[in-house]
Design goal:
Blueprint lengths: L4 H25 L13 H13 L4 H14 L4 H24 L9 H14 L1 H14 L8 H27 L11 H19 L9 H33 L10 H68 L4 E4 L4 E4 L1 H7 L8 E2 H5 L4 H17 L3 E8 L5 E13 L2 E7 L1
Antiparallel strand pairs: 1-2, 1-6, 2-3, 4-5, 5-6
Helix pairs in contact: 1-2, 1-3, 2-4, 2-7, 3-4, 4-5, 4-6, 5-7, 6-7, 7-9, 7-10, 8-9, 9-10
Length: 423
């Protein structure tokens, strides 16, 4: 039986995860200088969490296999290797479950996502591996009773740092770029790189290094390059800081390896969270701004569409009025101005003006007796309410007599009418 390409894909993915986990674990063990063979930083934790989050629990066998191989290769007994691998795998499964439960986005573009990743995956889930791992080492006689608590604290901090530093880097770089982050020019990328090199040189090299000089660079990366920039700069800083501290060089070296661990891990955690929060704030602000711009464009399009529809409706109304020989009007009693349709002006033989015409412009066109009669019925309608209708005659410029049927209806209470409309 030959497996198809689709059948081989999950197997290849598990094998790839196992190989990468093994490679990262060897890097972590290279700085395992603390009591109990415990590493101050464990990059595979962040890698494992990211893999399970991105590809699901189906890749967990690769994590377990990679952890098993690295522990067997380090000379651990079978029982110990199985226990450590189980703890590492359970940690990744729980952390990924937390991230999915709270719907954390891979772009980490919201402060809430960062809080869940740091608190849920970085602090809570890593308790699992530390507890299972140290318990296994103690039961195997590798970690003495007097070192259990300290080894557990070191293990937990190392795993937490791996989750906080490595997981965000993989998540933000695996997915497509966050388009809410504005583009930066190649020149700015080069300037950021130069600033990073200078900050690292001043932070971890020399007789009086100051690690805090890298903070402005991380802030710059987060503000201008988003979460990708912040995670990349912090990951590089983490690698250099841990390496230099393990060598006994740098700002965080105090003569006590355990105290050194606390200092460097706290510094790197604050560095990563600061960069991610700045990137999230900028991303959220830019996203909201773009959503508002899109909403404005949509509103403008709807207004234009509605305006065009009204223009068409008005044209059709004018055409219908012309065919029916009916004109409509609105009379503002405060200004004595009448706004009428085009057909009204045509029927009254009045030159059309954009703002309408005075009431008397239309009344003067009527025969005197009919003008007086119209004024009476309109006055009665204003004072007592109710619609009116009357016939009136007018003489055109060529002397032709035209009969008009004038109707109207007041807008308002009797005696307090400000407008009237009719035809």
């Amino acid at each position: 039986m030959v497996l198809g390409s689709k059948a081989w894909k999950p197997i290849a993915r598990v094998a790839g995860v196992a190989a990468l986990y093994y490679a990262l674990a060897r890097i972590g063990l290279s700085v395992a200088t603390l009591p109990g063979k415990v590493s101050p930083v464990w990059p595979p934790t962040g890698f494992a969490i990211a893999m399970v989050y991105l590809f699901g629990p189906s890749v967990s066998p690769g994590i377990w296999l990679g952890a098993l191989l690295v522990n067997l290769g380090g000379g651990s007994p079978n029982f110990v290797a199985i226990g450590l691998a189980t703890g590492n795998t359970a940690e990744a499964l729980v952390a990924a479950r937390i991230l999915h439960h709270y719907k954390v986005r891979p772009s980490l573009s919201k402060p809430r996502d960062i809080g869940v990743l740091v608190g849920g995956a970085g602090i809570v889930a890593t308790l699992i591996s530390a507890t299972i791992g140290v318990a296994t080492l103690h039961l195997a006689g590798i970690t003495p009773s007097g070192q259990v608590l300290e080894s557990w604290r070191i293990w937990w901090i190392g795993d937490a740092l791996g989750a906080i530093v490595v997981t965000p880097f993989i998540l933000t770089w695996y997915r497509r770029r966050d388009h809410a982050v504005p583009d930066a020019s190649p020149r700015e990328v080069a300037l950021l790189g130069a600033a990073f090199v200078a900050a690292i040189a001043l932070s971890f090299v020399g007789s009086q290094p100051s690690a805090f000089l890298v903070f402005p660079v991380v802030a710059w990366a987060g503000l201008r390059f988003g979460a990708r920039g912040a995670t990349a700069v912090t990951l590089l800083t983490s690698a250099i800081a841990v390496h230099r501290t393990a060598e006994g060089v740098g700002r965080f070296v105090t003569g006590d390896p355990i105290n050194d661990l606390y200092l460097v891990d706290t510094f790197l955690t604050v560095l990563m969270v600061t960069g991610l929060l700045l990137a999230a704030v900028v991303s959220e602000r830019t996203r909201v701004q773009r959503e508002l711009e899109a909403a404005n464009r949509e509103l403008e399009a709807r207004v234009a569409e509605r305006t065009n529809a009204l223009r068409v409706d008005r044209f059709r109304l004018e055409q219908a009025q012309r065919v029916a020989r009916i004109g409509s009007w609105e009379w503002d009693l405060l200004t004595d101005n009448i706004s009428g349709s085009a057909e009204l002006d045509r029927l009254f033989d009045v030159e059309r003006t954009p703002g309408g015409s005075h009431y008397m412009v239309y009344c003067d066109k009527l025969v005197a007796d009919d003008r007086l009669a119209l004024n009476d019925v309109m006055r009665h309608s204003v004072m007592h309410g109710g619609p009116f209708a009357t016939d009136a005659r007018m003489v055109l410029s060529d002397g032709t007599l035209r009969w008009l049927r004038i109707t109207g209806d007041p807008d308002g209470e009797p005696g307090d009418v400000a407008q009237m409309h009719g035809s």
